Amino acid sequence: MPMTPNDVVLAVEDLRKTYGATRAVDGVSFEVRRGEIFGILGPNGAGKTTTVECLQGLRRPDAGEIRILGLDPARDLAVVKRRIGSQLQESALPDRIKVWEALDLFSASVDGAAPWESLIDDWGLRAKRNAQFGSLSGGQKQRLLVALALVNRPEVVFLDEMTTGMDPVARRVAWSLIERIRDDGATVVLVTHFMDEAERLCDRAAIIQAGKVVAIGTPDELRSTHGDTVTVTFNGDEKDRALAAKVQGVESATIDETAAVVSPSAGAASTEGGIEARGRGPIGVRIAASLAKAGREPADYAVTRPTLEDVYLAITGDVDADEDTDRHAAKGATP
Ligand SMILES: Nc1ncnc2c1ncn2[C@@H]1O[C@H](COP(=O)(O)OP(=O)(O)OP(=O)(O)O)[C@@H](O)[C@H]1O
Ligand SMILES: [Mg+2]
Hints:
Bound molecules: adenosine-5'-triphosphate, magnesium ion
Strand content: 25-35%
Number of domains: 2
Number of helices: 11
Structural class: alpha/beta
Largest sheet: 6 strands, mixed
C-alpha cells in the first residue's frame, strides 16, 4: 500500500544529543507509522532513553528534526503532552500516593480521560487499589506506571522497558493489552531489552548502538537481512555431509559431534553424528531430496532459523562500546 504523509505519526531526522563528552545520540533517523508498535532495541547506554525523551519533548536535543503528530515537541510541548502517553520513571511518583489516587489525579488533569476503574482491572491492580505506591512490588509499580501512561487516551504511547520486573503471566497480559491499544488505533513506541517481546509485539524495530541506528525493519526483515541462515541438522556420515555440501544454497556443511537431532521416536535429542549444514533458502527440503535421490535417507532432521535475538547478538554482541568505527560492517552469520 502506498504510504501517504498522514501515515507517519513520528519522524526523526539526524537527532543528536551530547552530555558533556558523551555522544548519547549521534545522528538517529527513523519514521513511525500510524498504528504501529515500533520497537527500539539496543545495548545499555546506546541512547534509547535519550532518544525517546527527546521525541516526547522531555529533553532538548542539540540538533535534528522531530515531528510528532505533525508538531514540533520543542515548540508545541503542551499540545504534544496532551496527545501522547509517557511511561514515567518510578521516581516520578511519591511513595505515599495510593494506586487509585495516582490514577484519579492523572485523569483529573486531562480532558476526556479513560475511565481509570477499567485500567485498574486491565492492569491487574484491583487488589492493590488502596495500596501505597511505595509498598507495591516492582512489577506492580511497573503496571501502574503503564496504566498511568494510558489515562489520557494517547495517540502515541512511549513505553520504556515496560515489562521489566513483570512476572511471565503479567508480561503476556501486558503484551495483549498493548496489542489492543494498537488495534484501537494508537501508535506505540516500545523500548525493550527482551527480544522475544520485540519479535512477538513489534511491527517494526530499530536497533540502536552507540547513538546510531544500525538496523531497522520488521522482525522478519531483520532476521532475514542479516543472512537468512537455515541450519539443518541431521544424522549421517561423511558421505551425507559431502552430498549436503553440494546442494544449492548450502554455504557450509560440517560434521558436528555435539549437534542435537530431535528424534520424536526416541522422545529426546540424540547427540551422535549430527551434520550441520548452513545456508539460505529452502535448503532443508533440498538436502532431504538430494539424500533421498542418492538412496540415503537422513534418520531425522531439524531446521532452525535465526531468532531476532541471534540477529541482535550478531549485530551488537562483539563490538567494543567505545569503538567509533563503521558498525554496519557485515559479520559472519555464526550465532
Ligand atoms: N542525564 C545524563 N547526564 C549525563 N549522561 C547521561 C545522562 N543520561 C544519559 N547519559 C549517558 O548517555 C548515554 C545514553 O544513555 P541512555 O539512557 O539514553 O541509554 P539507554 O540506551 O536508554 O540505556 P539502557 O538500556 O541502559 O536504559 C549513556 O552513556 C549515559 O551514561
Ligand atoms: Mg534506557
